[in-house]
Design goal:
Number of strands: 13
Strand content: 15-25%
Region (Disordered): 458-508
Low-confidence stretches: 1-6, 135-147, 317-335, 461-508
Family: Belongs to the AAA ATPase family. BCS1 subfamily.
Number of domains: 3
GO molecular function, one term: ATP binding
Strand order of the largest sheet: 8-7-10-11-12-9-13
CATH topology of the largest domain: Rossmann fold
Mean pLDDT: 77
Protein name: AAA+ ATPase domain-containing protein
CATH architecture of the largest domain: 3-Layer(aba) Sandwich
Cofactor: Mg(2+)
Bound molecules: adenosine-5'-triphosphate, magnesium ion
Shape: elongated
Largest sheet: 7 strands, mixed
Length: 508
């Protein structure tokens, strides 16, 4: 009896277990059948989420591209992180294309990096995952040969959750800015000039690398004026939002005026080097039709400087054509469409309505001859007078050419200071004189002599300088050019007006 009681109990337990197991299996298979896969995954995740300890860190995923377009943040992070590699990094990628000047450093996959910003630690990780999504398994050998293997590259940026706002609003913009700065530094500036070899197809921009060495440091100018210009440029590039808010085109115009050889072209090059903007040198003399001008202006890029040199000589276009083509007297007026007002209309209207961060610079030797339309307030934002060499400017040249630092007082400086202030001598002329000898004393003595002579001559003319013979050919040619321009200046009445630019080519 006892044993009989035991026996069924054991068997009943077994059968109970068996039936339970069976029903569990049934339940699971029912669940599998009834609840579709995604929802099951979801329930599982939710379960894990509830059970798992809450993480305090937030991870941002920065993928290489968002489908079609590249992800700016990714590129910026890549560039920025290359400046943050630490001794902890074990594998880095190095590359350099033939055109680049420097090596490029990149993180190798899996590398981690710790950055500190405002006392907050930010953990970066570079991940390279091979995506098998569209790699058909049966012909992997082919696909690897053809290298269609697609890789998904992304950065993970992790930090404490409480810094989310700071990272999004301050750290990432900082990374973007840094990367932009780096790109600017590496950028090779271009100078675009007109190519007129297209007989019927009009004109086109041609570009060469701008390797003009002029910078604000080497520019001989009074320091207040120099600082005012630099400040103006800084303000301009920083004010995207301002221009947008007040509904103005993000443009700035400068008018540089002053006698030949005072550094107008050098200042333009210095501005380009400072801002890392390309230069477009628009030689109006080479443009015949309005439509060409329109095409050319539209073909200029953002972050650039459009330069029109000697504007006083270039604007009287109908007259110029008259002079240049005597046999074309019978030409119809409609041929001659390019006028100052036409140009200004373009600049105010068309050119202003497209593109951003543009600078336009006009230069002239004779501000007084300019059409009042050009001087109207608001047209050119800043009028910059480039004038004869002051003592302060001279000291910059002395430091550039003779390596005399400006706080070192050369024994000839007081005499020069006395003389230079009442002599009209251009920085170009001073530079030329200082180049005559590598020996500072000799060069400065020569310069003092020149100043005295000029003072005696009463600033009349630098053309009849007897020292001309002693100069090397290149210097002499520059001098001739200056001299020739000055003669023209004297004689520049009425029909004599024509573009010097024609004969001089590019000025930079
Ligand atoms: N302010 C300056 N600072 C440093 N160098 C200068 C300065 N002005 C002139 N020079 C020297 O003289 C040369 C000629 O100057 P630049 O071509 O800039 O003069 P410019 O005012 O443009 O003359 P132009 O009216 O003939 O075009 C320059 O290459 C430079 O070496
Ligand atoms: Mg010039």
């Amino acid at each position: 009896m006892f044993s009989q009681r035991e026996m069924p109990s054991a068997s009943s337990m077994f059968s109970a277990y068996a039936s339970m197991a069976a029903s569990m299996m049934l339940l699971r298979s029912m669940a599998n059948e009834l609840i579709p896969q995604p929802i099951r995954g979801y329930i599982l995740n939710a379960f894990h989420y509830l059970v798992k300890p809450r993480s305090q860190s937030l991870t941002l995923v920065i993928e290489e591209s968002n489908g079609i377009a590249r992800n700016h943040v990714y590129d910026a992070a890549e560039a920025y992180l290359s400046t943050r590699v630490s001794p902890d990094n074990e594998r880095l990628k190095i590359c350099k294309s033939p055109k680049e000047k420097k090596l490029t450093i990149r993180l190798e996959k899996g590398e981690k990096l710790l950055d500190l910003y405002d006392g907050v630690s930010l953990r970066w990780r570079f991940i390279c995952a091979e995506s098998d999504k569209n790699a058909p398994s049966e012909n992997t050998s082919i696909s690897s040969n053809v290298s269609v293997r697609s890789e998904k590259r992304y950065f993970e940026l992790s930090f404490h959750k409480k810094h989310k706002q700071m990272v999004l609003e301050s750290y990432l913009p900082f990374v973007l800015d840094k990367a932009k700065e780096m790109k600017d530094d590496e950028r090779v500036l271009k100078m675009h000039t007109l190519n007129t070899s297209y007989c019927y197809g009009g004109v086109k921009w041609d570009s060469i690398n701008l390797e003009h060495p002029s910078t604000f440091e080497t520019l001989a100018m009074d320091s207040e004026q120099k600082e005012a210009i630099m400040e103006d440029l800084n303000r301009f590039v920083k004010r995207r939002e301002f221009y947008k808010r007040v509904g103005r085109a993000w443009k700035r115009g400068y008018l540089l005026y002053g006698p030949p050889g005072t550094g107008k072209s050098s200042l333009i090059a210095a501005m380009a080097n400072y801002l890392k903007f390309d230069i477009y040198d628009l030689q109006l003399a080479n443009i015949v039709r309005d439509s060409d001008l329109r095409k050319l202006l539209l073909a200029t890029a953002n972050r650039s400087i459009l330069v029109i040199e000697d504007i006083d000589c270039s604007v009287d276009l109908p007259e110029r054509r008259h002079v240049d083509h005597h046999h074309h007297h019978g030409r119809k007026q409609t041929d001659v469409q390019l006028t100052l007002s036409g140009l200004l209309n373009f600049i105010d209207g068309l050119w202003s309505s497209c593109g951003d961060e543009r600078i336009i610079i006009f230069t002239t030797n004779h501000k007084e001859r300019l059409d009042p339309a050009l001087l109207r307030p608001g047209r050119m934002d800043m009028h910059i007078h480039m004038s004869y060499c002051s003592f302060q400017a001279f000291k910059i040249l002395a430091s550039n050419y003779l390596d005399i630092s400006s706080d070192h007082h050369h024994h000839l400086f007081p005499e020069i200071e006395g003389l230079i202030e009442d002599t009209q001598i251009t920085p170009a002329h001073v530079a030329e004189e200082l180049m005559k000898s590598e020996d500072a004393d000799v060069a400065l003595q020569g310069f003092v002599k020149l100043l005295k002579r000029k003072k005696m001559e009463g600033d009349v003319c630098e053309n009849d300088d007897p020292d001309n013979k002693a100069e090397p050919a290149t210097k002499q040619s520059k001098k001739r050019k200056v001299a020739c321009k000055q003669k023209k200046t004297v004689a520049a009445a009425g029909t004599q007006r024509r573009t010097r630019r024609l004969s001089r080519g590019s000025s930079l």
